[in-house]
Amino acid sequence: MADEPDSELKGSSPSYESINKDAAEPLEIGYMAEKRLVAKLDRYIIPIIMMLYLFSFLDRVNIGNARLYGMEEDLGLHGNQYQTAVSILFVTYLLSELPSNLVLKKFTPSRWISFITTSWGIIATLTGVTQSYGGLIACRLLLGLVEGGLFPGAAVYLTFFYTKRELALRIGYLFVSAAIAGALGGLLGYGIGFMDGVGGQRGWRWILIIEGLPSFVLGIATWFLLADNPETAFYLTSEEKELMRVRRERQAGQTESAQKFHKQDVYAGLKDWKIYAFCAGQFGTDTVLYGYSTFLPTVIKGLGNWSTAETQALTIPCYCLGALSYVVVARLSDRQQKRGLYSVIFGAISVIGYGVLISDSGMGVHYFGCFLVALGLYVCCGLPLAWLPNNQPRYGKRTTATGLQLTIGNSSGIMAPFLYPGTEGPRFVRGHAVSLALVGMSSIIFAFMSWYLSKKNDRRRRGEEDGRITGMSESEIAELGDKSPRYVFTV
């Protein structure tokens, strides 16, 4: 999983040479040591983070597969009750995201993430034995309450270990997990569906029970496997921990004090209009994510006379394409440090995909539209989640920004289920049209932010903001974070 390390580390510095002072060629050996370090981080961090989000996403959206195996009939759901059950999760999910981020360091990542994972595993499993609409609603509310802290916590956790030139690809692995969860959900739904009637239980119950159990096991394992920070990582040697310190200090604004939690940084994040612009853009793209992930089986089933098993199988290539596109684009984005360009391009691809789905065309054309949406989906959702924390060097502001971005973005999950009522199938024109408009809005926002941040960088390069640091010491300037005239924004 490792890619090229931060190119800035190829240069010389006293602190960097100090950990390679016995080397004949310190710069070359140091560069390779840093490359090996990134590879080690990937081996110990990425698999567990990917599994956590994979099972989280699977447990959250497998209600879409359960619907195909008689859940509505067994629970007596009618009207918009299914859509309500899907969306109600996001009420507590949203309310828990920012508070969860703010307590992440206090309770430590390993313990906090272990707690919420074990909790949602229990709840997701027990959802399979619910007997009424009220019970389903209660399970969904509790599931959202404990799951809400995972993605924002994971996104911030990755910034403890990776530089801004490595972050998009690593956050991208979370979206790859979401795509794998979609494909795996289809495969599991197909296989578990044949258990319909086993033990006197319907297939939808077995889907929820069997897919919920791994989260419980993973939650317990997380307590022991997840390091809280580079200083306490059991898999890093003392030399590697020193190199982690050097990597952090080479990033502008990443001082020792900046990595601690300060209330004033939280207040600064709450007052920064740029963060809210990213939040608005995330809202539009997340509408695609939740609408697409939850209702893709329903949309594909309406394209032809497919059996439930065939419908599940047809969703898999779409998710695989989405995963592949993000991995490729995230790697390019990290190397070029261009977030806005790819966010806009792939947002436009999703817009085109929804246009195809809205069109009065044949089954094959509409299925092609599903592929286009998937091609742009994970890129336009994922890159901004690396872009915003890239531009927040201070921990308090970064964790606030990510929490707000995900809270406001994920609020689209409340609305998305109602865009696809069963009465509007099989074409779901209104749902596709609203998603098209919102993704288009997001693309415009991201294009504007890329332009604005580029202009801001130009002003700083010309020295037009140097007046604010007149009379300040070097250490005081470093503590300004993204407000420092020397800080260069990722665009």
Structure at a glance:
The protein is mostly helical.
Share of helix among residues?
Answer: over 70%
List the uncertain runs.
6-29
Distance between the termini: 24 Å
Report on the biggest sheet: none
Q: Structural class per helix/strand content?
A: mainly alpha
- How many individual helices? 21
Average residue-wise pLDDT: 86
Global geometry: globular
Strand content: under 5%
Got a strand count? 0
Name the helix and strand elements from N-terminus to C-terminus, one letter apiece. HHHHHHHHHHHHHHHHHHHHH
Q: What's the alpha carbon Rg, rounded to whole Å?
A: 23 Å
Descriptive overview:
- The protein is mostly helical.
- Helices cover 72% and strands 0% of the residues.
- It has helices spanning 14-18, 26-61, 63-67, 71-75, 81-102, 104-107, 109-126, 133-147, 150-159, 167-192, 203-225, 238-249, 263-270, 273-301, 308-336, 340-358, 363-390, 395-410, 412-415, 429-461, 474-478.
- It starts with 13 loop residues before the first helix and ends in a 13-residue tail after the last helix.
List keywords for this structure.
491 residues, mainly alpha
Summarize the helices and strands and which ones pair or pack.
Blueprint: H1 14-18, H2 26-61, H3 63-67, H4 71-75, H5 81-102, H6 104-107, H7 109-126, H8 133-147, H9 150-159, H10 167-192, H11 203-225, H12 238-249, H13 263-270, H14 273-301, H15 308-336, H16 340-358, H17 363-390, H18 395-410, H19 412-415, H20 429-461, H21 474-478
